[in-house]
Amino acid sequence: MKTYKSLQYRLIAAFFIIAAVVLVAVAAILYFITNDSIQNSFQQATDAYNKVLEAEVFMVYVTDHNWDNLQSRLEAVAVDNRGRPLHLIVTDADGYILADTFNSKNIGQLHNFAPYSESKKDILLPGTASESCSLYIRGSSLYEPDRFFGFFFVSCAAALAIAVVFSIVLSKRIINPVQKLTMATESLAAGKLNIRVLINDDSELGQLADAFNEMASEIESNHRSNKAMVADIAHELRTPLTNINGYLEAIQDGVVKPDARTITSLSEEAASLARLVGDLQQLSIAETSSLTLNMEEVDINILLQRAYLAKQHEASEHGIAVEYEETELPKTVADPQRIYQVISNLLNNAIAHTEQGTVLVKASHDDKNIKVSVIDTGEGIPESELANIFERFYRIDKSRSRKSGGTGLGLTIAKTLILGHKGHIGVESVQGVGSKFWFTIPIKNLSKKKQKIEELI
Asked: What is the spatial order of strands in the sheet that 332-334 belongs to?
């Protein structure tokens, strides 16, 4: 990266330009506002100092009535406000030099008026009506604009230098976190998913670093989940395919006859594969936000009754009683097919994990939500497993087969569909006592419409 294109260079240049513009503006304003008043003040001080010098010449004549001590008296006072010697010349009325503080040899000579005419001060001597002498002052002005504004511009230059130093320090404080984030982003793009950025800053840069770290964690988590999902899919597909392939090889070798029993086994394995592929397809559609919900006014009680009646026969074959507790519920707007699928998945899960006892289906509501609960008296779920229960392909008992434990996607699909309805889903369980799976959906009174899932986990 070229230096002049870097962000730090641009920040320093911006600070410098701003500081320069501000200083120039302030200097111009101060000059136009204060120059006349400062010059007048210095001129008044200069005039007052010149009066003192005139008074000194006057007092020499008053005291001595001659000019014998004028040279020494003027040499003693001929200094300006900075201690530099002043060139003072006093002449009589005819222009002859009476005193010269720079060269006493000029006394008695005729003075060349031209260089000093602008600083000439005529002094009327006491006791005379017309006799006078002239005082020529060179370098007595207290107002020195070059020195005054020179000092001002030096101060401006120092201020600019300080501004540059501070801009370098400040730009580094800004650039260093940005550079860290840039390097971390490049590392993340290169596949280093465990990269994180540590920036101790409460500003927007710190918030950006926190957001980056959250994003990196999410990417790493999704990457692990995807790898695990691919492994799980391969494992889930391998078993039925192996069984089917084994049966077919056995038939080819004449070990197994292609009778009704064999065909039934092959059909069950094929159905298991079809079920797994169907669940994967549903989950893929839902998680890519392409699942369309056909929203219409729904009576949740009707869906609960349908699911309850559909599962009664299957449950009774396993010695499990399915019960339905009907409650008056308000109608709401939802996709009836998808809500029925959720209820069915929860019932399937409850029946699969209950050896004996009952599975209860019930519902309740408040002002905002309808809550559906499926309660079983099954084996329960260990507390340490509750956080993962809605993950895809997750099984508490790893030894369970698909026939007894399902595909491992039913609860994941249920969660996705409920989130698509802007609802919530959860589980409460005590190991050895049973589990309670529940979900809520908001109560709405809207006309029939189609709505796509926008927020998924």
From this structure: 332-334, 292-298, 449-452
Q: Which domains does the chain have, with CATH numbers?
A: 3-146 (3.30.450), 193-288 (1.10.287.130), 292-452 (3.30.565.10)
Rounded CA-CA distance 322/352 in Å is 12
Average pLDDT score over residue span 439-457: 62
Model-wide pTM > 0.70: no
Q: Distance (Å, rounded) from C-alpha 19 to C-alpha 291?
A: 58
> What digits encode the pLDDT tens for the residues 285-321?
666 655 678 889 999 999 999 988 888 888 888 889 9
Q: How far apart are CA 281 and CA 274, in angstroms?
A: 10
Q: Cα–Cα–Cα angle for 310, 296, 414, nearest 5°?
A: 50
**CA pair distance 295, 308, nearest whole angstrom:** 23
**C-alpha distances out from residue 439 to 279, 311, 407, Å:** 20, 19, 21
State pLDDT tens for residues 137-172.
775 555 455 556 667 677 777 877 887 787 777 777
Q: In what order do the strands lie in the sheet with 357-365?
A: 320-325, 357-365, 369-376, 434-442, 424-430
Arithmetic mean of pLDDT, 79-103: 81
Whether residue 457 is predicted with pLDDT greater than 50 in this model: the reply is no
Q: Are 320 and 358 in contact (CB under 8 A)?
A: yes
Stated length of the chain = 457
What whole-number distance in Å separates Cα of residue 393 and Cα of residue 410?
9
| Residue 369: exposure state from Cβ atoms within 10 A (0-12, 13-18, ≥19) | middle
